[in-house]
Design goal:
- The protein has about 200 residues and is an alpha/beta fold.
- About 30% of the residues lie in helices and about 15% in strands.
- The chain has a four-stranded parallel β-sheet with strand order 7-4-3-8, covered by helices on one side. A two-stranded antiparallel ribbon has the order 1-2.
- Strand 1 and strand 2 form a beta hairpin.
- It folds into two domains: about 50 residues, no CATH class; about 130 residues, Ribosomal protein L13 (Ribosomal Protein L13p, Chain: A), CATH 3.90.1180.10.
- The protein contains seven helices and eight strands.
- Helix 3 crosses helix 6 and helix 5 crosses helix 6.
Length: about 200
């Protein structure tokens, strides 16, 4: 068995076809020359791959394609609705998702007053906040929060599913929640999404 490739013969520092007689030669032939067909190396027919053609493309503020979408919250479960809305706001439903960039869509949630909670959560789920003063811990059930404003329920649920940093605060500005079926964003021509 002889070496018939310039690549392998240059490793053995010879231009002649030499028989393989030592383990070192076998190692060089098998491991350093990856294109073997029997005893002949075909490295002369290598195809060069353009590595620039498949590099990961990161979005930025200029290249992010943002659009407007409408989500109807009528008879949707609050947590499941909020997780889908958070994904859209974050941009995770897009192939060009970039974690550190605001590349998601602007989301309009309508009929927030018709959102559902399962089980006994209307009475048992408690929202806790703190005023900052001694003895200033305040409690509010889901029913009490809805009586004040049902948009707060959806906003609070979505905010909890966004990053807790500057990007998360910026992303939260892309959420618009309304109690009824009307919204003032017709000029943006939002498309409706079924969740």
């Amino acid at each position: 068995m002889g070496l018939s490739c310039y690549f392998c013969s240059s490793i053995l520092d010879t231009d002649k076809n030499l028989p393989i007689k030592s383990w070192i030669s076998i190692f060089i032939l098998l491991f350093l020359c990856p294109f073997l067909r029997g005893d002949v190396c075909i490295s002369k027919t290598l195809i060069k791959v353009d590595t620039l053609s498949y590099k990961t493309i990161s979005a930025n503020k200029a290249t992010a394609e943002k659009s407007w979408v409408v989500v109807d919250a009528d008879s949707k479960v609050l947590g499941r609705l909020a997780s889908e809305v958070a994904k859209i706001i974050r941009g995770k439903n897009k192939p060009g998702y970039t974690p550190h960039v605001d590349c998601g869509d602007n989301v309009i949630v309508i009929n927030a007053d018709k959102v559902k909670l399962t089980g006994k959560k209307w009475t048992d789920k408690v929202y806790v906040r703190y005023t900052g003063h001694p003895g200033g811990q305040r409690f509010q059930t889901a029913n009490e929060a809805k009586a004040k404003s049902s948009t707060l329920l959806v906003e609070r649920a979505v905010r909890g599913m966004l990053p807790k940093n500057r990007l998360g605060r910026q992303l939260f500005n892309n959420l618009f929640v309304y109690e009824g079926a009307e919204h003032p964003h017709e000029a943006q021509k939002p498309k409706e999404i079924k969740l």
